[in-house]
Amino acid sequence: MFFPEGQVRVFLYGEPVSMRLSFDGLYALARHRMQQDPLSGALFTFINRRATQIKVLYFDRTGLCVWSKRLEQGKLIRNWDRVTTHEMDWTALKLLLEGIEPKHVRHRYRRAVSHAEFTS
After folding, report:
1. Chain-centroid distance, C-alpha 52
2. What's the Rg (C-alpha) of the chain?
3. Which residues contact 60 (CB under 8 A, 6 or more apart)?
């Protein structure tokens, strides 16, 4: 399924989750612990304690779907102490799935540079 880059909401659950949980268990975590509506079309991301597996729960207008990924090497996150339940963007989820831990990123350019500054 195709998701428009800027329009999908992604929520990361900030505690380790048993990967034995499937549709109903992940739905309950999203609904009761995260206080979000799992039927909203948003993506809900859950990671196991060793940070080697990730599951993403979403609703596609016909039913609940679960994506799952298990890393053969490395970890999705390095330290659970810094992980909190929060909303992140689609790009941060893609980075997480590729093995790049998203952090607070500072913008490369803080203000727009006008053409006049280069001509003087």
Report:
1. 15
2. 17
3. 1, 41
Query: What is the value of pTM for the model shown?
Result: 0.78
* Cα–Cα distance for residue pair 95/68, rounded to 1 Å: 15
CA distances from 89 to 25, 63, 65 (A): 24, 23, 19
Q: Which residue stretches of the chain are H helix? A: 23-28, 90-97, 115-119
Per the rule left: phi > 0, alpha: psi between -120 and 50, beta: everything else, 2 is beta
Q: Where are the beta strands (DSSP E) in 1-120?
A: 10-12, 43-47, 53-59, 64-70, 86-88
For the segment 36-80, what is each residue's pLDDT rounded down to a tens digit? 999 998 999 999 999 999 999 999 889 999 999 998 888 888 888
Higher pLDDT, 108 or 98: 98
Higher pLDDT, 35 or 92: 35
